[in-house]
Amino acid sequence: MLLQVRDNGPGITPELVPRIFERFIRGDAARTRTEGSTGLGLSIVSAVVAAHHGKVDVTSRPGETVFSIWLPRRQSAPGPSAPAAPYDPRVPV
Ligand SMILES: Nc1ncnc2c1ncn2[C@@H]1O[C@H](COP(=O)(O)OP(=O)(O)OP(=O)(O)O)[C@@H](O)[C@H]1O
Ligand SMILES: [Mg+2]
Asked: Known EC number(s) (predicted)?
């Protein structure tokens, strides 16, 4: 499955792009903790996608930034588990 998020903002500077998924990376000094920016958002995205064995990437130029997330299809689910035995108060659990 491919999920894409696109915006038409100013874009990400080319020097920042290779490091954009690192923790605490912020684009400019104006984005500070007190302004509500932790620099963690995209690193969390990257970690969650990796946990699902997916891939995340970004392309950016002034006027168009596209984040792409590929997620693999679910592996074939394990077979149904045995149905639980009916409750019998005489059987210790
Ligand atoms: N769509 C975008 N367009 C331009 N720059 C971006 C975009 N998304 C992220 N960035 C840049 O990448 C940096 C890191 O983004 P990230 O989401 O990891 O942290 P943040 O947005 O600063 O903080 P938080 O997600 O905690 O609010 C941002 O500070 C910003 O400079
Ligand atoms: Mg963010």
From this structure: 2.7.13.3
